[in-house]
Amino acid sequence: MTKILNLNGKNLPKEEREAHHPYIRPKDASTLVLLDLKDKNNIKVLMGRRSLKHAFFPGMFVFPGGRVDRGDSTVPCSGDYPEAVMEKMCHDMRNAKTPARARAFSVAAIREAYEEAGIFIGSKGTGLNKRKDWYAFEERELLPDVSGMRLLARAITPPGRVRRYDTRFITAWSDVICDQLPSGVGPTDELEDIHWLTLNEALDLKLPAITKTVIQDIKTRLKEDPELTPGGPVPYYRVKSNSFVRTLI
């Protein structure tokens, strides 16, 4: 089923309204949606507020995440996706559809979760060999572990925007966290006011439109599939035939 979405609502932040910038190819990105299931009636999600210093979405609450780096596809992992998750990660993938590229989205999300929220997601192992951005994992003899990751949604920023991303929204239960920095924040200053929030609390915050949409998707998915099974439906948001549409993969 295809659903056409409105791109030009007055309630959208100015960065998200229809614009006429020259075409740029979307960059691969990923974001980590960590869910705390301790209270099944009030499932919580980890979010932080973007610094007001940022030019893009300043002061808005988002999930930890960012661009996929070229080296993310070569980072050794402990564990791998279930087959159904691998298939969904590779769906409509630009360029070569390789397992390494599919894993890179979760590796990037794990790296960003550490950098922005001070969280470690991994299992015991070695082999990072003093890789840039992974020193803290190496010190703890941890390798990033993608086995608990599930693809929750995918969204490609429409053409005409000043920045465009092809973002995988990756989810996992909070029990994948194996360690955390004592400060409760990451070594960068990209996110502030990091909190575990109920889904309804999150919806009341200042959010990018796609973030609000994904939170609503989470509520629907958990109602229909509380275990987040690997082969569950994944909303895919993109421009198709000059309309911004939502399809399921």
Plain-language structure description:
The protein contains 5 helices and 13 strands. The relative contact order is 0.23. β12 (235-240) and β13 form a beta hairpin. Helix content is 21%, strand content 30%. The termini are close together. It is α+β, with helices and mostly antiparallel strands and 249 residues long. The strands form 2 sheets. Strands 1, 2, 3, 4, 5, 8, 9, 11, 12 and 13 form a 10-stranded mixed sheet that branches. A 3-stranded antiparallel sheet has the order 7-6-10. The model is unreliable at 8-13 (pLDDT under 50).
Share of helical residues: 10-25%
- Residue runs with pLDDT of under 50 for 5 or more positions: 8-13
Elements, N to C (H/E): EEEEEHHEHEEEEEHHEE
Largest sheet: 10 strands, mixed
Report the sheet-strand fraction. 25-35%
DSSP, total strands: 13
Output the number of helix runs: 5
Write the layout of secondary structure elements.
Blueprint: E1 3-5, E2 27-36, E3 44-50, E4 61-62, E5 65-67, H1 83-90, H2 99-117, E6 119-124, H3 135-139, E7 142-144, E8 150-156, E9 165-173, E10 177-180, E11 191-198, H4 199-203, H5 209-224, E12 235-240, E13 243-248
Parallel strand pairs: 2-9, 8-12
Antiparallel strand pairs: 1-13, 2-3, 2-5, 3-4, 3-11, 6-7, 6-10, 8-9, 12-13
